[in-house]
Amino acid sequence: MKISELEKLENEGTDKLPSEERRRFLKFGLAVTGVFLGGSVLSLTSVRNAQGVTGAKPATGKFSYPKHYTMVLRQNRCIDCERCKEACVKTNHVPGYGYRTTIMEQMRDIGGGKTEPVFMPVLCNHCNRPPCVRVCPTTATYKDKETGIVMMAKERCIGCKTCMAACPYNARYFDETAGVRAVDKCNFCWDTRISKGETQTACAEACPAGVRIFGLLNDESSKVYKLIHAPDKKVWVQRPETGAMPNVFYIND
Ligand code: SF4
Ligand code: SF4
After folding, report:
1. Pocket of ligand 1 (CB under 6 A)
2. Dihedrals φ, ψ of 54, to 5°?
3. pLDDT digits (tens, 9 = 90+) for 153-208
4. CA–CA distance, 62 with 48 (Å, rounded to integer)
5. Cα distance between residue 153 and residue 143, in whole Å
6. Whose CA is nearest to atom 2 of ligand 1?
7. Ligand 1 binding pocket mutation candidate from 172, 183, 237, 239 (most atoms within 8 A of CB)
């Protein structure tokens, strides 16, 4: 299917989900599209906006960030082993009461009175219009101009938690650790791995099912670029109606 055709399809949003399902997702601060629940499509507009271009196939060099990091999640491959989460906790010293990434579970009706579990890995979406950044009074959280990663400068965090309230995805927690006491969230393992020359986040490296694909959206030879631009793939983001322009994408592949 072509991107132009996808965009003509209706965005199901959350309005058409059964109210009980909607409640359960919204309880987590998340809502997902009909794709996740076996329906159709969410728009690809965010893919374009993430790249700061208007064409379906952006020309090389016209990207928002010199190194535009992103993650594509092959959602249907997730088996809920949580190795990604364990690797993240270990690598980034995430305390037991918080998470930088986790797995949501939903039961899907498969007919005949039967249900099956569906798993959905979630993390910070590194939004291109991040509400968390907009509301932070001290610029402790900011969108990095080189990488597009939404970062935390913990020394500037005053613990007001305004960013936590503003994030539509519940992607932040407050780290109470002595000597830290600041909001924390996924930063694509920037300080622990990527800035040191590693090419994979801890979660992507640990996943045995190949769910998490991390890479550069401005590199046409990268796997993330190819997955997002595959003409026959449906790509979706979480809750596009927030206007945050998520920079983490989902496909079934
Ligand atoms: S998902 Fe939440 S924490 Fe991450 S950039 Fe978007 S608004 Fe900020
Ligand atoms: S490691 Fe991969 S398969 Fe296991 S829970 Fe995480 S995303 Fe799912």
Report:
1. 124-127, 130-132, 150, 167, 169, 171-172, 185, 244
2. -115, -15
3. 999 999 999 999 999 999 999 999 999 999 999 999 999 999 999 999 999 999 99
4. 11
5. 11
6. 167
7. 172
